[in-house]
Write a structure and sequence with these properties.
This protein has 166 residues and is mainly α. It has six helices and no strands.
Length: 166
């Protein structure tokens, strides 16, 4: 079962994964007291906070004091959530991800090759044993490539030899 805390943690991890760190990993260690989160993190934090307030207003629709929170539930909190989504789109560079998806779906082979190469290299080098799993997965493809490559090379050699003889 996925509760709200797990969903929030998953969203924060997803946001963290989409942020480019550059050479920050090679820089010297930053003390925890000096660490500052990105604007993307704060935008997602604000969105999660707005969702929390909306859920609280819906669950406590009628306040113990007798107040009915219909304006908060129908207009005020959803407008804050929409605002935070727009801020998150800008601060988390959502437009970059949309452009990449558009390029991948339009079969931009250079980007597709770069993305696959980067992802495969990351998967092979990041986790122990992933290279063996990848090689097991790719074994039928590699065998087919070697068989076809030998056949094609033999055909090209025969054609070249036939042209030289003629």
């Amino acid at each position: 079962m996925m509760d709200q805390e797990i969903a929030a943690s998953a969203l924060y991890g997803f946001v963290e994964g989409f942020q480019y760190k550059g050479l920050a990993g090679a820089a010297e260690e930053i003390l925890a007291g000096e660490m500052v989160e990105s604007n993307c993190f704060y935008a997602m934090y604000g969105m999660m906070d707005s969702v929390d307030v909306l859920v609280n207003d819906i669950t406590n629709f009628i306040d113990p004091a007798g107040e009915i929170k219909w304006v908060n539930a129908l207009a005020y909190n959803p407008s804050h959530i929409l605002n935070n989504v727009m801020v998150g789109y800008e601060m988390c560079e959502g437009y970059t991800q949309v452009e990449r998806l558009m390029a991948l779906f339009s079969l931009d082979f250079a980007l597709l090759g770069q993305t696959l190469g980067t992802d495969i290299t990351f998967l092979i080098s990041d986790s122990a044993g992933m290279q063996e799993k990848f090689m097991e997965f790719a074994a039928p493809c590699l065998e087919a490539i070697t068989e076809n490559a030998a056949d094609v090379a033999a055909g090209v050699a025969m054609d070249a030899a036939g042209q030289v003889i003629d």
